[in-house]
Amino acid sequence: MAEDWAADVRKYSPDADDAAIKGIVRHCGIALQKRDSALVSFSDKTETDRVRDGFMKKKLGLTDSDADLDASLAEVGQTLKGDRTKNRVTVYYLLAEKHGKLDLFR
After folding, report:
1. Using CA atoms, how far apart are residues 24 and 38, in angstroms rounded to an integer?
2. Cβ neighbours, 10 Å, residue 10
3. Measured between alpha carbons, how far is 98 from 102 in angstroms, rounded to an integer?
């Protein structure tokens, strides 16, 4: 899939860092090859738990309570509310940016 991940991220973060976007794309790897796994479903609790536990806790190293992390994820979901496609790269970028963790991907 030839997707312009940077263009989608820049809709929500106009000054997005190209190196960080590339790092997130690398991190997501094979998940971006299929449309279904390249998107985040905010209405699926299993999916949001996976983002919280696998990305926010493990990759970003956040130690906040599950409730606080869920609230942060919901906030990003609200930001993307008008967009039918919630690209995983964009969600991850916005979460990393919100928590000051973009350096992990540069």
Report:
1. 12
2. 16
3. 9
What global pTM score does this model have? Answer: 0.95
pLDDT at 1 over 60: no
As a whole number of angstroms, the distance between CA 78 and CA 105 comes to 24
Percent of the chain with pLDDT over 90: 91
Whether residue 3 contacts residue 84, with contact meaning beta carbons closer than 8 Å, is answered with no
Contacts of 89 (CB under 8 A, 6+ apart): 5, 8, 9, 21, 24, 25, 28, 32, 38
Q: What is the rounded CA–CA span in Å between residue 46 and residue 37?
A: 13
C-alpha distances (whole Å) from 51 to each of 1, 2, 41, 99 are 22, 23, 10, 14
Q: What is the pLDDT of residues 74-99, one digit of tens each?
A: 999 999 998 888 999 999 999 999 99
Rounded to whole angstroms, how far apart are CA atoms 102 and 106? 7
